[in-house]
UniProtKB/TrEMBL annotation:
GO terms for molecular function: beta-glucosidase activity. It comes from the Eukaryota. This is beta-glucosidase. Keywords: Carbohydrate metabolism, Cellulose degradation, Glycosidase, Hydrolase, Polysaccharide degradation. Residues 54-207 form the Glycoside hydrolase family 3 C-terminal domain. Belongs to the glycosyl hydrolase 3 family. Its EC number is 3.2.1.21. It catalyses: Hydrolysis of terminal, non-reducing beta-D-glucosyl residues with release of beta-D-glucose. Pathway: Glycan metabolism; cellulose degradation. GO terms for biological process: cellulose catabolic process. The lineage of its organism: Eukaryota, Fungi, Dikarya, Basidiomycota, Agaricomycotina. The keyword Chaperone does not apply. It is an enzyme of class 3 (hydrolase). It comes from Mycena albidolilacea. PANTHER family: BETA-GLUCOSIDASE, BETA-GLUCOSIDASE F-RELATED.
Length: 212
């Protein structure tokens, strides 16, 4: 592997005439970091990719797209930013907050991270919609025009354990009792929208046929 990597390095002339390395991912405060902005228009491209990769599995009674609701309940740990911030966990070894990437040693730090809660609040301001957040309260869903439930399932490299999972997931179930959360919210609000942020397929048989 080393031979293959170095052969390409020499082939394209990266051994001479290239700028010296000017950052250290392990030390953000070092004067060695020149913080060169290489983002260009990546934010626009990322947004396009995100939109194109979103799958609408079910849309009972055409709840989506929303039609200027007066109130929205946002429920679930996966809706808001982590309490530690976008890069609060080493190698992203945590499922506290919106799931944007799995964990592993080669992950990169986010220059920014827009949570679903922030995005919904920004868009809802146009219609003066009241947006309320709860990490798991069924009562928050009651009486609202629509309730969004965010559930997650994470995985990563097998060098560490996250919520009892070492690398690969132990099952295809949503983490943090996600199925029970969906059932509770659906029982309280007839317009329940489930949003899944997952590293791969999850089992949704427990609630996919729910009429709400």
């Amino acid at each position: 592997m080393a031979t293959r990597i170095l052969a390409a390095w020499y082939l394209v002339g990266q051994d001479s005439g290239f700028p010296a390395v000017n950052f250290d991912a392990w030390n953000n405060t070092s004067s060695f970091n020149q913080h060169v902005n290489v983002q260009s228009n990546h934010a626009t491209l990322i947004q396009q990719i995100d939109a194109a990769s979103t799958v609408l599995l079910k849309n009972t009674n055409s709840v989506l797209p929303l039609k200027a609701p007066k109130t929205i309940a946002i429920i679930g740990n996966g809706a808001a930013n982590s309490s530690r911030g976008a890069i609060g966990y080493s190698d992203h070894e945590g499922d506290d907050g919106v799931l944007a990437v799995g964990w592993e040693s080669r992950t990169a730090n986010f220059p920014y991270l827009t949570s679903p809660l922030d995005a919904i609040r920004s868009r809802s301001a146009t219609d003066r919609t009241v947006v309320l957040l709860s990490t798991g309260a069924r009562t928050e869903a009651m009486g609202k025009d629509v309730a969004f439930v965010f559930i997650t399932a994470d995985s990563g490299e097998g060098y560490t354990m996250v919520e009892g999972n070492v690398g690969d997931r132990n099952s295809l179930s949503a983490w943090q009792s996600g199925d029970a959360l969906v059932a509770a919210v659906a029982a309280a609000n007839k317009n329940t929208v489930v949003v899944v942020n997952s590293v791969g397929p999850i089992n949704i048989e427990a609630w996919v046929t729910n009429p709400t």
